[in-house]
Amino acid sequence: KDVQKEREPHVYLSKEEVKEKIQSYNSSVTDKLKMTLNANGIYTGFIKVQMELCRPITVQSSQSQGTCAHSNNETAFYLPDGCVNTLHISSTNTVREVIEALLKKFFVADNPAKFALYKRCHKEDQVYTCKLSDREHPLYLRLVAGPRTEMLSFVLREHETGEVMWEAFSIPELQNFLRILDKEENEQLQILKKRYATYRDKLEEALGGVWKPG
């Protein structure tokens, strides 16, 4: 179960401390996604972001998978559960820049302001989830936590605003949502019709066996 956790204060590290942490980080990496320290003190590395989106996203491509609906050259579709993406970023990149880069990488046309990045930590059999502010630096958090994703992982979600703010969506997005809902409604209707047709056949078969003419 996720519980909210207070944000931990940002601890500024000296260049030597950063170098030591990167060496320790790289010695523990098992997937070859190591960090690199540049001469100017800026370091680069990789973060993995799990996509946990409840609403469909709009992409500028016709090559999309999953439940989708088309409008001109844009497609709205639901991302599959557990989708994880890897980004190569620097220590200067902020949360807002990471969200923008992630959406740009997959040609997502939705407004980046609709999304938020969360950090998820596992401690003492509890899962702590905290929304990151736009100015925080994900690669710094990754460096401090180490490479193990069970210690720290990143999650992209829609903003938790209670009811959906439909006025924040464009007309093409809303039209695509309606197409998806119509498609899902028709699919569910066909499933129900098939289910009741099967029940009817079995009932008629049973009645036929009971009421055979003597």
UniProtKB/TrEMBL annotation:
Keywords: Cytoplasm, Cytoskeleton, Metal-binding, Microtubule, Phosphoprotein, Zinc, Zinc-finger
InterPro entries: RA_dom (IPR000159), RASSF1-6 (IPR033614), SARAH_dom (IPR011524), Ubiquitin-like_domsf (IPR029071)
Alphabetized PROSITE patterns for the sequence: RA, SARAH
Molecular function per GO: zinc ion binding
Pfam annotation, one family: RA
Domain SARAH: 163-210
One GO process term, biological-process aspect: signal transduction
Residue span(s) of domain Ras-associating: 71-161
UniProt keyword annotation of Chaperone present: no
Superkingdom of source: Eukaryota
Subcellular location: Cytoplasm, Cytoskeleton
Matching SMART domains: RA (SM00314)
Cellular component, GO, one term: microtubule
The protein, known as: Ras association domain-containing protein 3
Organism annotation: Cathartes aura
